[in-house]
Design brief:
The chain contains two helices and four strands. By secondary structure, the chain is an alpha+beta fold. Strands 2-3-1-4 form a four-stranded antiparallel sheet, with helices on one face.
Length: 83
């Protein structure tokens, strides 16, 4: 009996400047890569925007590239990721 490989799901945590369009700008790279967004939580305060994204449909190398792309956005302060 062979095991069926489950698609990987990754969690990204992004802290950004509190811009009104922060969520749209953070999600754009996921759409370009064709990721499947399983969950998105976005909290906007006067000090920062904190976004947690659970995404599937990314190969491990794509997920690592996503961290680099998110980190290169001018509004992004920090990016963390895992699965």
């Amino acid at each position: 009996m062979s095991a069926v490989a489950q698609p990987l799901s990754y969690r990204f945590i992004v802290e950004a400047d509190p811009a009104g369009d922060a969520l749209v700008r953070i999600l754009a790279p996921f759409m370009v890569q064709g990721a499947v967004l399983e969950a998105v939580d976005h909290v906007l305060s006067d000090a920062s925007a904190l976004t947690t994204i659970r995404a599937a449909g990314l190969a491990p190398d794509q997920a690592k590239t996503m961290v680099d792309r998110l980190g290169s956005l001018p509004i992004v302060r920090t990016v963390g990721f895992g699965w």
